[in-house]
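Hi V.,

You were right to ask for the full record rather than a summary. Here it is.
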Amino acid sequence: MKPRKIFIYQVLPRLLGNTQASNIQNGTIEENGCGKFNDITGKFINQLKKNGYSHIWLIGVLAHASTTDYTKYGIPGEYPEIIKGNAGSPYAVRDVYDVDPDLAMNVNDRMREFEALVERIHNAGMQVIIDFVPNHLARNYKSINRPEGVKEFGSNDDTSVAFSPGNNFYYLPGKELEIQFPVKKMADVTYKESPAKVTGNDCFTNKPTPYDWYETVKLNYGVDMQNGNEKHFSEIPDTWKKMKDVLIFWSKKNIDGFRVDMAEMVPLEFWQWVIPQVKKIFPHIIFVAEIYNPDAYRLFLANDNFDYLYDKVGLYDVLRDVACGYRPSSDITFTLNNVGDIQHKMLNFIENHDEQRVASDYFLKNGKSGEAAMIVTACLNINPVMVYFGQELGERGMDEEGFSGKNGRTTIFDYWSVDTIRRWNNHGKWNDALLTKEEKKLQRFYAKLLTLCNREQALSQGLFYDLMPANYDNYEFDSAKQFAFLRGTGNELVLVVVNFDNKDAEVVVTIPDHAFDFFGISQNGNFNAFPLLSDDKPKITFSKNNPIRVTVLATSGELYKISSF
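Predicted structure:
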């Protein structure tokens, strides 16, 4: 039996469980509140499972720099001038061996509370993914939770040289860090860094700008970046060993996978070295790479190192343009062809924490208009699919939270409470009592779509057949606005038709003889097509000589299960 199709629910716990509605711009944790590990209850997890999800990706789990004072718990104080927002970036990790105290009911018990959450997720039959951030650390990194015998990053560095294979960081000798823009500071406390370390986005200057990852410092994997990227791997670099220890540490916490932040900014050789070692001990662990260079895709997948890769610069970018009317839907075909042999390894999504919300003013302005794109995203292949929390409610991401600003994204930097999530949460009831009619309808659409993708073997395990080439000359099918394909396995066949136009369309879909041969289905006789997404549509009868005619709603689509009779 093949494994089920993976559906990942990406969530920021800091926002998910926060029911405090004050939402003061640039507010502190005391003013605006913060969600906790304990808010991710069995009730919530079971609802996700019921709605078709198999994995939960928890972002912001690792302890990261924030302006909140936890010094009374033995946690080092931080410096606001090198922190983005009050809550801080989840990717400016200040201790790779600790979980974030913001998420704990009892700060001293924070790791146990995280472990209990992992256990709740497993008890519901779901799996856990957390971030692994290999390229950089928080500027003021200091681990208080590292295991006995593990040395601190940079503790043995030679800071008098810009680069050494034995160093964990890159340095700018003789230069002190200078923040070049207005920053908030604590009274009588100023962050000092001399010599300055290289900033996380490969910024080799002691004067990073607001557009740089100024809150982070770049880790050194033995590549002399200022001398032609010369590699020094004859001896395993110390950073490699330290990061392997980190992966083993979290794998022992019974997590099921890592989403690897900016994986391509770390040498491929490191992944080829470390992933097999982790998988030898923990064979179930999956690695998902955030990667934006298509030329590197196959290298990162070679020898079963990474399991899945982001499909951002491919399918996401094209679907966004098609949904917005900037490109014809036929471009989807060409995009899929670019990753044809590895399509099953691409992680599909139409939202994540880095991208603008579908319902924002900068994208489609409402969640309903994203249904066509979501159907394509979910049904294309056997590859994993991700939904960002609130996407299924049409969350607009149009709050002006503070550091994040009004940009169509839900903040990852500020203490905040998201209106749609807060109403769905409904003080831990996780019901639809406070949701609008439109939100309820969209949530049901997502749940039904994902459930169908799990239930129908043709969608969870079947082959893909693109119907666009067979319909380019079909005057009753608009290849600039509609997209159609088949999924099938054994005797099961599902037709997927979507309409990116802003008005309903009646279309005729030509299914060529080759498609039936491809799936091993006899072309003789008639066929019934039963709608799967809609409850009120009748079945459709068609034959080889009488192509299927369907009505597809605006910015939406339909799935038809096909059987012969």
